[in-house]
Design a protein that fits this description.
The complex is a heterodimer.
Chain A: H1 2-27, E1 34-35, E2 40-41, H2 44-72, H3 77-82, H4 86-89, H5 95-129, H6 137-160, H7 163-190, H8 193-205, H9 207-218, H10 225-233, H11 246-267
Antiparallel strand pairs in A: 1-2
Helix pairs in contact in A: 1-2, 1-5, 2-5, 2-6, 2-7, 2-10, 5-6, 5-11, 6-7, 6-9, 6-11, 7-8, 7-9, 8-9
Chain B: E1 5-14, E2 17-27, E3 32-36, H1 43-51, E4 58-63, E5 66-67, H2 71-76, E6 77-80, H3 92-103, H4 108-118, H5 134-145, E7 152-156, H6 164-179, E8 183-187, H7 191-197, E9 200-205, E10 208-213, H8 215-218, E11 221-228, E12 231-235, H9 240-252, E13 257-264, H10 267-279
Parallel strand pairs in B: 3-8, 3-9, 6-7, 7-8
Antiparallel strand pairs in B: 1-2, 1-4, 4-5, 9-10, 11-12, 11-13
The chains are: A mainly alpha, B alpha/beta.
């Protein structure tokens, strides 16, 4: 499995590098243009770099989510059906430790993966366009946090669902979160209260999406003016900010998922 | 000293299915007990409750004085599941090392070497699980169950994938465990094997114990056969106590006696009587 992940990740980064190089070459003559009657300045370089880097963040989140699902979709029911789990949980270590260990392994592996791809994407983007994100560490932490939430959701699902059903369910939840995030983007652009409300509720229910949006927002946190407004209208502009209370909320959310998973696992016949 | 395993009034309900309906079973320290019964009788459920894998609906199960499933009970027992799988990428030695860590065993390399020799896998120490035959994996599973010197061992169909030589190895292993005072609850369909090695048998049918005891106690007399003057005479209803008188009477009657056999029912017959008797 690991060679496949490495090869596909290298392919993703290679394609990203090739794509940004080609695209940058085609827009270079248009950079630093002025638009509109009031001569509002739009920095095409920032707009281009931040949008494409946002795309790479989406790719990173997507790949890490796939990895998270494959790491954890079969931890309880799937492994029990294959006979892998029973020899472990009859040891003094116990079920809670097995669950905590698998969560820690999934969270650490996926976080390292996110960090690696994220840093590679930053370096590729900078090498081609000379642009650095306004904030570098915060988006990486939020992106990793988003994947950790998905690891926890997948682990919880594995207690109750068969491996295939859980994999499908988590992937659909991931898709639903992304759609809700895009609705929020559209809501911001159209100034639609109902769309914004849907996006807000979705963000609380599925906080990985809010973390991803905040990470997108953070890469142009110091950017302002029409460039920022144009970015916010795009799919990778991160129009919504999560706010300061969101980090403790995510920790609480993870604690609730952990409790439900441990409770369900303790009562499950294997 | 408490029993190595004791179940009292154990019940288990899976939805509308009653898997166990008040089972009482004891396995004494160092005792080897065979668990018999048709498919779906509740044998694996009983073993899984003993290991803490399944929660009982009622009754109690105790392993070495601790509630089944508790940390203390799990520390005192070993288990080989009927359907099990080990990670294919790890070697026999690595698997045992992993289970030593999980069981908190300080046995180190010496324990691993001894266990691999005990199950006849000393030459396969570095072989990966994925490169092993099913029989080798099953023997590795038994070695894994013995990590940490358990006092109580639950074996669920441990010889189902073994060839005759492998079964003989396991029989030898069970006898060695008896010498080491390890109690074993052996769930098996191989009646001859159970008859050969077990101190007692428990027959379960439809979630209830329908017969239990030493094989010789459960056996019923089926008469005496005597070879006399080119023919075999059968004395139905006679037992060991009557055999001497039968022979004496035949000799007094002028017959030459060439052989005497006291017939008792085999474990297979006991099993079929118990199970079919309950079914009819």
């Amino acid at each position: 499995m690991f060679p496949i992940v490495l090869v596909l990740t290298a392919a993703f980064l290679g394609l990203y590098g090739f794509g940004i190089y080609k695209a940058w070459g085609s827009i270079e003559p248009l950079r630093q243009q002025t638009i509109g009657p009031s001569n509002v300045l739009i920095d095409e370089g920032i707009l281009f770099s931040a949008t494409l880097f946002g795309l790479s963040m989406f790719g990173t989140l997507f790949l890490a989510t796939v990895l998270a699902i494959f790491f954890t979709h079969a931890v309880v029911r799937g492994d029990a059906e294959r006979g892998l789990l029973q020899p472990l949980v009859v040891r003094p270590l116990g079920r809670g430790s097995v669950l905590a260990g698998r969560f820690a392994a999934g969270a650490v592996a996926c976080s390292l993966y996110v960090a690696f791809v994220y840093v590679c994407a930053i370096l590729i983007t900078h090498a081609v366009t000379g642009w650095w994100p306004d904030r570098i560490v915060q988006p990486a932490i939020e992106l990793a946090g988003a994947v950790i939430v998905l690891v926890a959701l997948s682990l919880l699902g594995s207690v109750f669902l068969s491996a295939i059903a859980n994999g499908i369910a988590v992937f659909m939840i991931f898709g639903a979160g992304l759609v809700a995030g895009l609705l929020g983007q559209i809501g911001e652009a159209l100034n639609s209260d109902s769309l914004n409300q849907i996006a807000t509720i979705s963000s609380w229910v599925l906080p990985f999406e809010a973390l991803y949006q905040d990470a997108l927002n953070a890469i142009t946190a110091e950017t302002s003016g029409f460039t920022k407004a144009a970015l916010s209208l795009g799919p990778f502009g991160g129009a919504q900010e999560a706010g300061i209370a969101f980090a403790p909320y995510v920790l609480g959310y993870l604690a609730v998922l952990a409790f439900l998973a441990a409770f369900g696992f303790a009562r499950r016949d294997l | 000293m408490p029993d190595a395993f004791s179940a009292r009034g154990l019940t288990k309900q899976y939805g509308s299915v009653q898997a166990l309906a008040g089972v009482d079973v004891e396995v004494g320290e160092g005792e080897l007990v065979g668990l018999l019964g048709p498919n779906g009788a509740g044998k694996s459920t009983l073993v899984k409750i003993g290991c803490g894998l399944v929660r009982a609906s009622g009754g109690s199960a105790v392993v070495c004085g601790a509630k089944a499933g508790s940390r203390e009970a799990r520390a005192a027992m070993g288990y080989l599941a009927e359907l099990f799988r080990f990670p294919g990428w790890c070697s026999a030695d690595e698997l045992l090392q992993l289970h030593q860590r999980l069981a908190g065993s300080a046995g180190g390399k010496a324990e691993r070497t001894e266990l691999l020799e005990l199950v006849g896998l000393a030459d396969a120490r570095d072989r990966h699980v994925e490169d092993m035959s099913k029989g080798m994996q099953q023997r590795l599973g038994i070695a894994q169950a013995l990590v940490g010197t358990p006092r109580m061992l639950f074996l669920d169909e441990p010889t189902s994938a073994l060839d005759p030589a492998g079964r003989r190895t396991v029989r030898g292993l069970l006898e060695e465990l008896r010498r080491r005072d390890v109690a074993v609850l052996l769930n098996s369909h191989l009646l001859s094997e159970v008859e050969l090695v077990c101190d007692r048998v428990v027959i379960i049918h439809r979630g209830e114990v329908v017969a239990a005891g030493r094989p010789q106690e459960l056996a019923r007399p089926r008469g005496v056969e005597v070879d006399v003057d080119g023919e075999t005479r059968h004395f139905p209803g006679a037992g060991r106590d009557e055999a001497a008188k039968i022979v004496a009477d035949l000799v007094v009657g002028g017959h030459s006696v060439y052989g005497v056999r006291v017939l008792t029912s085999t474990l297979e017959e006991i099993y079929l009587e118990a199970v079919e008797g309950e079914s009819s």
